[in-house]
Design goal:
Transmembrane segments: 257-286
Radius of gyration: 55 Å
Order of helices and strands: EEEEEEEEEEEEEEEEEEEEEEHHH
Helix content: 25-40%
Pfam family, one: Ig_C17orf99
Number of domains: 4
Number of helices: 3
GO biological process, one term: cell surface receptor signaling pathway
Mean pLDDT: 78
Distance between the termini: 131 Å
CATH superfamily of the largest domain: Immunoglobulins
Low-confidence stretches: 331-354
GO cellular component, one term: external side of plasma membrane
Strand content: 35-45%
Protein name: Fc receptor-like protein 3
Largest sheet: 5 strands, antiparallel
Length: 367
Amino acid sequence: MWLRDGQIINPSLIRADDSFVISRATSKDSGSYICVATNTFNGTNVFNASSPELLVTVKARVSNPDISFTVFKESYQSYFCVVSCQSTRGTPPIRFSLFNGTDLVSNVTVQERRATFKIPVVLDQHLGLFQCQASNSNRTASSRWIPLEIVPVGGPVTMHLEYDMAENYEVIYLRLYCKPERGSHPSFQWYLNKNPLHDQGSFYYVFNQLPGQSILLVSVGEVSAGRYHCEVSDSFDNSTVINSKRCYLDRKVLNHIPALVVGVVFGCFSVIVLLVSACCAAGVIFRRRRYVEATLVLDNCLTEPMMLIIGARLTLEKDQWETACEDELELSMYGEDVVTGEEAEFDHASEDSVDDWIQYKKILEEV
């Protein structure tokens, strides 16, 4: 039988010739191996013999390391950074090397998966592109390239807010953003009524999106009312501190409609009323103008041809009426009743006049 670190290996893995083969070795197969031979008679072990201990080490290849750096202040205007190289897999010892471009900065062999390098730095200068390399066998693993440039915080610190509303349009949550104009390693601190707000509280939560900005989440209520502002400094040096403007926030202020909004709404309503009134007035003026134009056209049509026709018609009717009156006078002198015939003739003349008017109307339309 075979033992690994004093533990019996599963017999199903042992071949018929008592050999033990590891087909795909991993770091888990590392350890001390011993082969034990036993002579048994009547169910009793009579003799045991063990092989010499065989120490097997299976090296796991090192994974691509991660690279990062932290800046520190050593003395007045003297700074350095610590570059960290770390792999998640790999059997020690591991040799780590730090490169600036193609130049080797330093290397070290350690019995763990992490190594650090100390580099002096100068603020506001681009110091190059750095990369970590790790090796524990014939294979070398490399990290990503990172630029090394330390920019101190500066410029104004801006703070703006966004909010979330409930179904009744009341503000219930706030998001306050704090962002400096520049700075590669800023440190943020929020304040409420000059009291610092750390990480998380009963009504707030601080979320830093380094290196760009910090976000303060606030639940609107009585306890959250007050003046907010943020403070920004360098994480490696707090000698320079920049404050944002202070902003007073409470439930009434947040749910108050600004005077500008009221003015804009009222102004838009007034403009709409004026437009509607102007359209109505223009419609009235246009209709009156059309009526005057139509009257003038009709007068022009009646001036020459139609007035002649109407005058001739009136003269004819006058002559017929005088003739009818004379006939009626003569008949009355004889006392004869001939009203029916004259009335019939007069009715016939009336019918003719109606037809004539229809013709006059057609003439008017043609004119």
